[in-house]
Amino acid sequence: MKNAFKRIFGTGLGQLTIPIISILLLVVFNLIRDPSFFSIGIMHNNDGNIVLAGNLISIINGASELAVLAMGMTLVTAACGGQDISVGAAAAIAGSAFVKVLKSAPAINGGIVVLAFFSACLVAVIFASFNGTLVAVFKIQPMIATLILYTCGRSIAYWINGGATPTVSSPIITGIGSFIPGIPVPTPVIIVLVMAVLFKLLFHFTSLELFTQSVGINGSAARLNGINSTFIKLLSFIILGVCVAVAGCIGVSRLGLINHETLLLDVEMDAILAVAIGGNNLGGGKFKIGGSILGAYVIQMLTITLYAMKVSSTDVKAYKAIVIILLVVIGSPVVKAKFGKFMGNVMKKNKKVPVKGAE
Amino acid sequence: MQENCLLQMHHIDKTFPGVKALSGVDFCLRKGEIHALMGENGAGKSTLIKILTGVYQMDGGEIRLEGQPVVIKSPQDAGNNGISTVYQEITLCPNITVAENMFIGRDSSFFVKKKEREKRADEILTKLGIPARSTMQLGSCSLAVQQMVAIARAVDMKCKVLILDEPTSSLDDKEVNMLFDLMRDLKSKGVGIIFVTHFLEQVYEVSDRITVLRNGELVGEYLTQELPQVELVSKMIGKELEELSSLGETEETGDEEKEDFYVAKGLSSSDALAFDFNIKKGEVNGFTGLLGSGRSESVRAIFGADKVTGGNVKIKGKNVKITKPIDAMKHGIGYLAEDRKRDGIIAELSVRENIILALQVMNGMFKPISRSEAETFADEYIKVLNIKTASRETPVGSLSGGNQQKVILARWLLTHPDYLILDEPTRGIDVGTKLEIQKLVLKLAEEGVSVTFISSEVEEMLRTCSRLIVMRDRHIVGELKGKELTQTQVMKTIAGGDA
To answer: How far apart are CA A145 and CA A132, in angstroms?
Structure first.
């Protein structure tokens, strides 16, 4: 217990302190408000599967697209010191491509879904490379560079399916969007897990993490140590592109249709926020993917909590803003430094170390 | 307690996580004196200065100004108490005028009284004999003059204590003299000046007293004229100076027979004019010349750090193309850049990550060095190079300058280079570490590594290099070796004109 405490507070605040504390606070708040908030039930869904249900499940499930995007956004943030604001629009494009391929097949089977997914990935990666080239080669600020796709992305998505919002109905798509028969955990949650493991493996089997952080912290030094920073930045965008495709396909599968106007609307700001709540420096450099995933769950938990409190959907945004102000202020360097000092003093007193020269 | 102190710091303590930066340090500055604060990197000079200027808070001790205890909690407090600091890096704005710089942030009136300001600024500049006019753009003045404007600003803020932190690092001799005249002038007006520098000669030229710190403790306070230079150095590094002289002359026997490791013909880059250059296996040579003579640009061209525009390069007799750093690294060349902060360290990453960086890049992205292997490497070099750090996981940015430099050295040594280029490896670091680095260079050469060494201190180069390439105005103007390697000869060649 003491060790865990020390690990979190140690010397100053660790990177994961804010997301962990926010989740704990939300949990405690909900426990006091209504302990049944966390009850997890087992029920039969419309398809007759045995599935888990409850607020907690809908939080984790509902945050899936956001969590996947936050992972990719973390990498772009770390390497480029800026954010991609076109992920929502790009996900609409990827989702449209996904549906387009599905619709062009006579019947939807496993192979077609895989093909459709890879097509979505390819399209998303092409657009991500466009963003990445503007940032890495032409040195345009990420937010400006991605503003282009942010503006025109949903129009492109509109063209792909000729302006229609076609539906796809197939047990496979339903399986991806909700539950696979026999598995009581929502499929999007499993996809997040798989993505997280893939990132973990990527960082384990390559030195991408070290290179990305080096480029983000000191580009000049990274270059003189032989790192191709243009490539690293471009690569971060390409990886985000894959995340965009995954998020887009989850979104489409959930509803069984593509609506290019509403699919993952405004998700880019939440994704950036998740990165920030995760304790990552939005100016680039050191990062923790896990922090961003937790950040995504914090945002979703907050939203669901507010809904559970019967706050109307128009008011939710305002309440969210208040909590987020608190979170970012608590996570700010100023408060962190003050708190670290305070904890340092508390520790000192507990250890009863005579403070030399204090007389 | 001493009497007649303008500024007295008594029993100052300061602890950082894991490090006792200052313990019980006393310091006394008298009215109208120039007081040099000396010590190796990590001795506690910067910490003491930062406590005095309100950047850090002391853990224990007392500061008195003219006998009255003062509390300094922020740089504003320091300013209000008449303590001003001029840092090594110019902290003014180059794109506005001298007058604006002198008054920025301290005009109480909302409306700008431009003419009045300029008149006042000119008065001060004339009074201090600073060759600048109030209406000039600061950026158009030389670095020395900019430095002086910073001082003029401080002086006008009615300062009693003026702290000059490495003010001469980027100045040439003439500019240094101008600065010294200004310092003497201020001294005669009763200002107490704390002078922090690494240049021993300068200390002897202007200072009245010297306070030496070592490992966060006070070694002593001395009258400059009563402390011989050799003794000062030994007080700073805490060991006798035999080692310094024992480094002695480099033997150069049989250098002629050794084969060339690297030969360049007509090599040029976006920043360097075409030049010829070669280095033999196990040779230590050096580029010398004044700041801006093109010595750094030349070695950057060798490493491919700037855009290479032409030339023919042979390594071990084979034609090679080096257009970017990774090419050079793959051919066994390492390059320690001149600007440690900008081109060297990755400040927020750990000592371990900084050490393995270059090797990892050479291995490629898909062959990551395992954590345990990296830890072994880091521990090994922390020990071999005697890097002072709380642990291998400490962010390198929190280390002292000399230790940061050692981390970068470790980074290149780990790649086992055949040819190491060291551009100003000893700038801004303490005497002890300087010696260690010089010894290391000679040891590497013995093991067959070629080294190109650049240093602003000619003496240091004479001790380590067996051949010196002299540059002036971006051209190579001479090459000295053997008996020609004397300070006067080097100076003559740098100055040119067959004088």
So the answer is: 8
